Amino acid sequence: MDLVKALSEQYLKPQLPPMNVGDTVRVTVRVKEGARERSQAFEGTIIAKKHGGINETITVRRVSYNVGCEKVFPVHSPTIVSVETVRRGKVRRAKLYYLRDRIGKRAKVKERI
Fold this sequence. Notes:
SH3 type barrels, 5-stranded antiparallel sheet, 5 strands
């Protein structure tokens, strides 16, 4: 087990901001289109964090043009350029799946000061 742990530790990203469920984050992803490569940002609310270590993932949800869009990002993936916290959220749950059923102001998370 120590061999697996030692192997996976070298691939962990050292400079990750503190992210919690309810925070609004901007995830910048490296997108490859043919021979060209560009960075694309996805900004939304973290509704779930799963696993841990090298397998850690965050589920980010945003609503654009009245359509909800969720993406699951592996935090330590090499395709992720950066994750920056835009605002901190004040929540009392580990998973915010109830936001899927809400629209408008009810779908907002209060800001932690």
